[in-house]
Design brief:
Length: 394
């Protein structure tokens, strides 16, 4: 059995685990990243989604020198339009006040490709692939992982193993969870009119439909739709030929970016949300989707996970500078206290927004209509909402 000693072990090399490994290695820590999938190869990536990156996340990516690469693939969002059922009831957002963008749309494959290229140059990072962790033990102040002829031990274990976290199952950490019994279909496509860097979110009875502006590809306008609907509807939509899907989508997007001309990719995702009752176990910290997952209505899941990563980065920096050992109970509790409430709040907000737009009766429709009008006319309310979307003051 090959023994590897490190300061920090990370299980799960997705969007959160990979950035965590890179950021903590930049602080001089010896990091081992264990991922169940084979060695990362951007040509084989199956996730064709885009991520709406907030201004707050961008700032942290700048601090750790990743943004200059990711930014090359990012399309800025300069305006957002929220549309309730039809074009007559709208809220417009822009960010002239702060003279910055409202966010950035980047394909997940570019984010991962950038981070993995950078990770491979870090001498203090070891990546172990095809390793699926099923067992954890302790020896004194060390956490031990034994798998595939490896014995990997460290002072702290970071679980970034996604929303179905096997690590959470090992510890039986309790969670609050909700199955929306819905799916999101993500469609990337070419269209006829310039999107003018505007993101749209249409709220329909069965769920929201977002249009996210992407950069031009092969000199054609490109965007991505994330549409939430009942499982039955999404399954039947997926069974149709592309020209039929295009005509349904064209009806829904009401000419906002011209006509959809060609579908590039389409994928579906089940909609479930959860929140761990605590973000740590003994010498183990949950990060990103292993700690929390949300309805994608506000495009904030990864952004909130990145706040976990930033807060961990600052905590490790403090402990390193004081010469303290990582991972003791005080360390883990401090991490929990800094991050749990933010996740709890986002869990509640995304859930309530989904409900508000879903209900369809005369009284509720009137209240919603009046609420939207009120927000559209109030600069203060609009500024607060756009700050929230940008990850500022969260
Ligand atoms: C339709 C949709 C749209 C979204 N859009 C946005 C958006 O616009 N903006 C935003 O901020 N967020 C968005 N999100 C949320 C975002 O995608 C997630 O929050 C993010 O991908 C979570 O990353 P993660 O690394 O925590 O988890 P994952 O990406 O799930 O990574 C977990 C990793 O752990 C590995 N793993 C699992 N078990 C083991 C094991 N036992 N041993 C070793 N490795 C293991 C897996 O192979 C995987 O690589 C969206 C989500 C959905 C569903």
């Amino acid at each position: 059995m090959k023994e590897i000693k490190s300061n920090i072990n990370i299980i799960g090399g997705g969007l959160i685990g990979a950035v965590t490994a890179y950021s903590l290695s930049k602080l001089g820590n010896k990091v081992v990243l264990l991922e169940q999938k084979p060695k990362f190869d951007h040509r084989k990536i199956s996730d064709k989604r885009t991520t709406a990156i907030s201004e707050g996340t961008k700032k942290f990516l700048e601090e750790i020198n990743i943004w200059n690469e990711i930014g090359k693939h990012a399309e800025p969002i300069k305006k957002i339009q929220i549309i309730d059922r039809n074009q007559s009831n709208k809220i417009h957002f822009d960010n002239k006040r702060r003279d910055s963008n409202l966010g950035y749309i980047v394909k997940n494959e570019f984010i991962l490709d950038t981070i993995y290229r950078k990770l491979q140059k870090q001498k203090n990072v070891k990546i172990l692939n095809n390793v699926s962790i099923k067992d954890i033990s302790y020896e004194g102040n060390r956490v031990i992982l034994r798998q595939n002829n490896y014995l990997v031990d460290a002072n702290i274990l970071l679980a970034s193993d996604g929303k179905n976290s096997p690590i959470r199952k090992i510890f039986k950490t309790p969670t609050y969870s909700k199955d929306y019994k819905k799916k999101a279909i993500v469609v990337n496509f070419y269209h006829s009119k310039n999107h003018q860097n505007t993101a749209y979110e249409f709220f329909f009875k069965n769920g929201p439909l977002a249009i996210l502006p992407m950069n031009k590809h092969k000199n054609k306008f490109q965007s991505s739709i994330v549409w939430t609907n009942t499982n039955k509807f999404i399954d039947s939509l997926l069974s149709l030929k592309d020209d039929k899907i295009i005509s349904i989508l064209n009806q829904k997007i009401q000419g906002s970016i011209g006509d959809i001309e060609e579908i590039i990719t389409k994928q579906t995702f089940p909609l479930k949300a959860h929140l761990n009752s605590k973000f740590f176990e003994k010498r183990v910290i949950y990060l990103g989707d292993s700690a929390h997952s949300f309805h994608p209505i506000a495009g904030q899941g990864w952004n909130l996970g990145m706040q976990d990563v930033e807060s961990l980065y600052n905590l490790v920096k403090k402990y390193n500078s004081l010469g303290l050992e990582l991972g003791d109970e005080i360390f883990c509790k401090e991490f929990h206290n800094k991050n749990f409430f933010k996740a709890y709040r986002l869990y509640q907000i995304t859930d309530k927004v989904d409900t508000i737009f879903k209900v369809d009766n005369i009284i509720f429709n009137y209240v919603r209509f009046s609420g939207i009008n009120l927000i559209e006319k109030s600069k203060k309310l609009k500024n607060q909402i756009s700050d929230f979307a940008m990850g500022v003051n969260l």
